[in-house]
Design a protein that fits this description.
Chain lengths: ~280, ~240, ~260
Amino acid sequence: MTARPYNFAYLDEQTKRMIRRAILKAIAIPGYQVPFASREMPMPYGWGTGGVQLTASIIGPDDVLKVIDQGADDTTNAVSIRAFFAKTADVATTTDTTQATLNQTRHRVPETPLTADQILVYQVPIPEPLRFLEPRETETRTMHALAEYGVMHVKLYEDIARHGHIATTYAYPARVADRYIMDPSPIPKFDNPKLDDCPALQLFGAGREQRIYAIPPHTRVVSLDFEDHPFERTKFDAACEFCGAADSFLDEVVIDDKGGRMFVCSDTDYCQKRQEAQKKDAAE
Amino acid sequence: MNALHANELLRVEGLSKTFTLHLHGGARLPVLHGVSFTVAAGECVVLAGPSGVGKSSILKMALGNYLVGEGRILVADGERVIDLARADAREILDARRRIIGYVSQFLRVIPRIGAIDIVAAAAQESGLDRAAARERAASLLARLGLPERLWSLPPATFSGGEQQRVNIARGFAGRHRLLILDEPTASLDAANRQAVIDLIAERKARGTGFLATFHDEDVRLRVADRVVDVSRFSDREAA
Amino acid sequence: MTAPLLSAQGLCKRFGAIAACRDVSFELNEGEALTIVGESGSGKTTLLNLIGGALAADAGEVVYRLRDGTARALSSLTEAERRALMRTDWGFVHQDAARGLRMGVSAGGNIGERLMALGDRHYGRIRENALEWLARVEIAATRVDDPPTTYSGGMRQRLQIARNLVTRPRLVFMDEPTGGLDVSVQARLLDLMRGLIADMGLAVVLVTHDLAVARLLSHRMLVMKGGEVVESGLTDRVLDDPQAPYTQLLVSSVLAA
């Protein structure tokens, strides 16, 4: 085996320990943002350094890593990060959700349901759900400590007043284990129900903001709403152009200069598998 | 001894008042000393004397508006007797609400509230419900000859006489057992003065006691049961 | 008579060499309005902050009677209890409305926030409540979805009042609530406040340097100078028969229009 120029998975062992301690704290207090000493990574802030540090701290040589960016395995972010870990950890990588032990994601939850021996790592830009209304960190910490969350509903109220319905369509705030309110990262609200009672461990990392939080397996996660404006899953008017799925999150793709568009599954692996299955069925 | 005789509503004993003018080097201005008199239920006691002798000051002390120098001001409150000279702010506020009513010389104008609402508020404070209070206010204003078109207007633009009539209505709107009147008829014409005299007579018949000053000899003669000459308590010469 | 709602005992506060509050004591009963009057530097704002729990006193105590009747020293309240009190039983109207409002949130959201903080989860009801209160403070219902950045100064103050009163507090602190407003706007605001105080039986601690406002709104008055209470009593008594030299000076200095 050739000597690696980097420590396994890039980070030094002490840093990994520090991050693992933060992860354990986060698991012990579901939804609570644990501060951690975020390291400088060989990619700029805003490119997933939080998620990368989480993955780097928990990945082992026998892990199989999948990385998606907005649901796709083949976009820049996903490709770079997968290559990063292939180089620094020499781990196996995959695009198949069912094969991965470790899934790192930016802004989507895979359509394929996860299992108890999987971990999902989210990349988070702004971890603080109260930040938009309360700029002071000292104040938001106190609000979390005292569970003073009235202001979160003010935001939803504003949406309804302005748009007639809750207009937040991503980064939709949710209450974890009936205690902390968290920002689930900019995943579409379509994905929020997947967070609830998930068999897999879900970890959230914000590199620039230096926070880690977690949802332990089978934890109750409830998206905020009003009694007379209950949380509703997004419904699409179309089905996937390629695989015909009517129950997955669709990307809108502009196909020409005349405004032509088509809808395609955002989760490329999910779509691929469905297409393969359909081909197989057709062949039989 | 803090007792009042059976029918007494108010007893003033040995009342004295001196002003200290700190802005003029602490000059002391004695006004009155040893003032004593009583007011019984159903009677009207009028304070008389030359201008500046201190009649108004006595009224204001009875109301808690001026501090008392020396002496006692005993007021009947059902079974109890209160000494207003020693009462704290809360007790005085309570006494003003329930026992002692006041018609001041000048209406202190509250912006934006209509005349009838000012009077109705006073009636409500004494316990009447909204509708009854408004009726009472209307009937008082009518009796005092205030034109109906003025009722809903704030009194700021009224004439002196019109303002005074609102003042009087407000003072008579409640159910106070003791009413203090400070020159209530000063700006009124003969007809309205008569209305006031009638109102006083009616209330006296129902047991209300009055302590008042009247510039007008004529009115004084018609309503006063007793006249107290304040000049015999005056310190003005001595000063 | 019932026990006082708020009782300040021997309050002292120093800022370095400056004694901003020296041994101040008073009581406030339910439904009573008390004005603390004084010129700049008298200590009146410090006193207000001590009573409201925003500042910790160096000596002395403030005791408040909670809705369930128990008397609690403010210093014994936990942070959570104090904040809960500020959201329910107390109100605070700031001189600068921007400090007491969320300027980026609609009027309805501003008024509804306390209700939502207390667990109200029905949008329709919250909105109805907000509209009711807008009517009570004489703001047109059509403005319910506008943020206070689009409001005039007087409207902002009225919105601030609505935001504070929606939970029917028993005690409201007001710091120069009409300061800086046009005279006609002041008059309207004062009338509104007078009406609300009377209708809701609010206890009020009002800080102002304006004696006319004091006379209109309050039953009792404390006059402060150099951190001390130089005179106290019924508002009309203090203004009409001032005893202390400083009070006499204050009263004689007021210009009549």
